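Q: Sequence in, structure out?
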Amino acid sequence: MPQTVILAVGLDSSLLADRHSIWQTAGYFITSAGSIREAILQFKNGDFDLILLGHSIPAESRERLTSLIRASGSRIPVVYITDGSGYSDSFADATMKNEPHHVIEGIGELLAKRAMIPSATTAVRSNSR
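A: Exactly. Output:
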């Protein structure tokens, strides 16, 4: 089974470090970014299956980063981890409550759902036969 590679972005370094350990223990390979600039560099140089945006990142910065990711042509799921206030980002693919087991379950569900959806190129290829 291939390893799931996640880019976790957050401005609270101690929270990011704590969560990094939990997600890694759950079997995910985590690359952390402590700033938007670092996240952009990591994204450009990496091959990620999912991007997690922590609640410590201001909404404007989350939107900017997500827009840059989408402008690159990437369809990688972007997940906003909320502080529990019930807020969700319209530009994120999913919003998850900031509790480790919720995030781990949510990541698994999101990636499983994504794996079940054939890509556009697969559909085109199979229709052209």
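Residues 26 and 82 are 20 Å apart (CA to CA).
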